C-alpha cells in the first residue's frame, strides 16, 4: 500500500516482487484500452449479447453484458470479445506502452491463445509492486491514453465502503499459482484485490494477494477483497 500523492510506501509485506497471473485484475487495464480505442463507448454501451459458444462457466455470466456489468460481475467472455476487437497488434502495443508486468501476451505454449487467455493463469505475469506502479500511473494520468479513457474507467470501477470511512475502488481476481512450466497449480489458488482508496484529502493505492491451501478458487478474489476492506483503516494508520 502506498500514498498516491507522494508515492511513499506505507505497507509492504510478503513476496511483493514476485510475479503472478493478474487474472481478472487485468480488467482494469483492459477497460482503459477499450475506452481509449473507442470500442467501449460509455458505462452501458456496447451491450454485447451472450452467445452459447462463449461457454461461460458461471450462470450469472450467461447474460447480455455492458461495461458496468462486465466489471461488477467480472465477466470473462466480455474481456475476450474486447481483445478480439482490439486485435493482437493493438493489444500488444497497449500492454507494452503500459509497462504491464512482464508484458508477455503469448498465451499458453503451442495454443496461440494469447489474445484471449494471456492474463488467465497463463503467460502474462505481474507482481504486487508492479500492480502498485500501474495504479499510480493510471491515477497520475501517465499511461498515454485519452482523458476520457481514464474518466470512464474510473466511472465503472466497482466501489466499496471500508471501515474508518474509506471509499474503495478496486478489482478482484481469482486463479491459481503456476508451476515452473506455467501450468496452473490447482492446489494453490490465489486471490487478488487491487485499486485505490479515498478518505477526505487522502488517496492510497493498494495491491493485496492471498494464496492459501483450502481457499476455494471461485471465492479467492472476494475473500481477499473482504480482508482488505476490514484491514484498510489499520494499514492506513487511521
UniProtKB/TrEMBL annotation:
<keyword id="KW-0732">Signal</keyword>
<keyword id="KW-0046">Antibiotic resistance</keyword>
<dbReference type="GO" id="GO:0071555">
    <property type="term" value="P:cell wall organization"/>
</dbReference>
<dbReference type="InterPro" id="IPR050515">
    <property type="entry name" value="Beta-lactam/transpept"/>
</dbReference>
<dbReference type="GO" id="GO:0008800">
    <property type="term" value="F:beta-lactamase activity"/>
</dbReference>
<dbReference type="GO" id="GO:0046677">
    <property type="term" value="P:response to antibiotic"/>
</dbReference>
<comment type="similarity">
    <text>Belongs to the class-D beta-lactamase family.</text>
</comment>
<dbReference type="InterPro" id="IPR001460">
    <property type="entry name" value="PCN-bd_Tpept"/>
</dbReference>
<dbReference type="GO" id="GO:0008658">
    <property type="term" value="F:penicillin binding"/>
</dbReference>
<dbReference type="InterPro" id="IPR012338">
    <property type="entry name" value="Beta-lactam/transpept-like"/>
</dbReference>
<dbReference type="GO" id="GO:0005886">
    <property type="term" value="C:plasma membrane"/>
</dbReference>
<feature type="domain" description="Penicillin-binding protein transpeptidase">
    <location>
        <begin position="12"/>
        <end position="232"/>
    </location>
</feature>
<protein>
    <recommendedName>
        <fullName>beta-lactamase</fullName>
        <ecNumber>3.5.2.6</ecNumber>
    </recommendedName>
</protein>
<keyword id="KW-0378">Hydrolase</keyword>
<dbReference type="Pfam" id="PF00905">
    <property type="entry name" value="Transpeptidase"/>
</dbReference>
